[in-house]
Write a structure and sequence with these properties.
The complex is a heterodimer of chains A (257) and B (454). With 257 residues, chain A is of the alpha/beta class. Chain A has two domains: 174 residues, Rossmann fold; 59 residues, no CATH class. In chain A, 37% of the residues lie in helices and 25% in strands. In chain A, the strands form two sheets. In chain A, strands 6-7-8-3-9-10 form a six-stranded mixed beta sheet, with helices on both faces. Chain A has a four-stranded antiparallel beta sheet with strand order 2-1-4-5. In chain A, helix 3 packs parallel to helix 5 and helix 5 packs parallel to helix 6. Chain A is globular and about 55 Å long. The two termini of chain A are 35 Å apart. Chain B is α/β, with parallel strands linked by helices. Chain B folds into two domains: 266 residues, no CATH class; 53 residues, no CATH class. Helices cover 18% and strands 37% of the residues of chain B. Chain B is built from eight helices and 21 strands. In chain B, the strands form two sheets. In chain B, strands 1, 4, 5, 7, 9, 11, 13, 15, 17, 19 and 20 form an eleven-stranded mixed beta sheet that branches. Chain B has a ten-stranded mixed beta sheet with strand order 3-2-6-8-10-12-14-16-18-21. The chains are: A alpha/beta (257), B alpha/beta (454). At the A-B interface, helix 2 and helix 3 of A face helix 6 and helix 7 of B.
Amino acid sequence: MTGLNINNLHVNVNDKFILKGVDLSVKQGEVHALMGPNGSGKSTLAYSIMGHPNYEVTEGEILFNGTDLLELSPDERSRLGIFLAFQYPVAIPGVTLANFLRTALNSRRRANNSEDKGIPIPEFRKILKEKMDLLEVDHSFAGRYLNDGFSGGEKKRAEILQMATLEPQIAVLDETDSGLDIDALRTVAEGVNALRGPDLGVLLITHYQRILDYIQPDHVHILYNGLIVESGGPELALQLEEQGYDWIREKFQEVAA
Amino acid sequence: MTTKKVNRSRVVKRKQSRAAKPSGEFSFTRDMIPNFSNGSAEPEFLTQYRIRAWDAFQKINLPDTTQEPWRRTDIRKLETDLFSLAGEGSSETPEVPKELLLPLEGDKDAGQGILTPQGVKVYLDSEISDQGVIFTSLVTAAQKHPEILAKVLGKLVPVGDDKFAAMVGALAATGILVYVPKGVKLEKPLHSVLWGPGVGRAHISHILVWVEDQASLTFVHETASPTENGQTLHAGIVEMHVGQGANLQFIEWQSWGENVWNFTHKRARVERDANLDWVVAATGSHLTKNFSEIDLVGEGATGRMAGLYFTDGVQHLDHDTQQNHLAPNTTSDLIFKGALEDRSRSVWQGMIYVAPDAQKTDGYQSNPNLVLSKKARADSIPGLEILADDVRCTHGATVGKIDPNEVFYMQSRGIHLEDAERIIVEGFFDPIVQRIPYVSLRDRIQKAIVDKLD
């Protein structure tokens, strides 16, 4: 079994049932869009995949290349190849983006070999510079304190830069489009497209269709009230754009009840 | 000279109470007052200063918690009668660790002073001494530069401030005088290290800095010792004068052994259009009570102070800071950041004072604290005393814990939980550490921070 496999996932947050049996598979090389109205459980799914301690899995499983992720801490999941681009990236004052990423890369190396001395700084600089050029990010970005005083667009670009540097197999992008104007959205989408390839599987979580004008998904799923209620191709997203979420609400009212 | 009327009477000071019961006596005697005469006569002002200080030392009781500045710092466990003056029979003491003597930049410090119980060794590059710069021990200063010594000695920190200020005034045998003549801009830093080992020893130091008009200086002063089993005492005074249009960066790091009881008074006077940039790092000592004051006495004067303290074990660090705006258009900017581990405790008490005629003052103070353990405690007491009406003064004080969202964010990048805490603490202090221009010193301070987290 390869890629990310989510089976019958039930998740509680503060004693509220949010996810009620989600099934979803994302393979490397595929881009899946997960859409749904506010409150449907999209971010809960993202956090549960990454292992946020406030999200309690009561039933079901999350497997990654056959490994049970639920047994692993968030950092272990990351080191296996899972990445989460946050909807609200956290500021780490006093820690430059470059130092942060170097520490993250070194954590991977040390997990493989406790004697590892860490990535040589010139080698790291070269990698980071390549990634910044690929994503057309200004080099001064690397020397700024991570997300501290960043604009909304800068935060999202910093997330994509981290993703590019850490080279995950599966990336979950949690509403990466939210709060961005059209130029920032395009920049971020171009970044994701630049990283797209046979080694990367993407779960793109979004409320709006518009980011899908720039990132063409292979599959589209609709999450409603804690369940995936529709799955299809890109046409499903277009249907949502034309009709909104009301037809989903009407069609699956009984599920909600 | 205007030195003596630094509007001191108008500055609201926490009053000393002289009525308290003595809670312990030091075994120092009058004959221990040092003499720097070296055959010839000692300058009269110096002798008079010491006698005045000795009289104050005799009269003033040990401070106790009934006095406002000492309310949160109890020193009843200080074994006052244990201490003998360092210097007497101090031939066998641990050597100064090599890393303390590493040059701040390049192969060699332009000027380095090493203060040990055996005496003071000073080196000064001839290129610098040729410009009239003085960097020398107190003894040499008294013999060769009495007129300069007289300008600053005892002019900023009154010996009557408390028992420890008086002790330093009367008994300081070790110290440094730094003098930069008018218009001389030193690009290379001067560096002094006070090394104070020895259980039962009292290290008493007096540091004096005089930067003439339009001159410029960076001065790094470190105080350190090994952690030993039993009490060691340090009492110190630092007095600094920044002349008109001059620049002084003063960087201090105290990394005393965790058996040291450390009592210090530091005060700077900043003249018209002059700049003081003061960086403080405090990681050592068992207990510290430190008073730092900036007097902005000339129009357009600026005083910045950036401090960090990191306590662990049962350390108790108490920093009192005072920003005195005594002239119009003066600017002060203070940030003190603290982190606490284990059962340690910190106190920061800050005051911005604005004199009635100090209009257009811009004053700022903040004290964020990061409490890393349930048993640790940080007290943060900002204060404003504003007697002018056209001013801008702001302050902030916070005491918080590590944000779990930050930890989760880092873990989501593969960073181990224990590393996440370290990175957060390092990042918390980084803006302060980066104020130090010298990589080798930054690295040593960062290492001290990381060592406390292990």
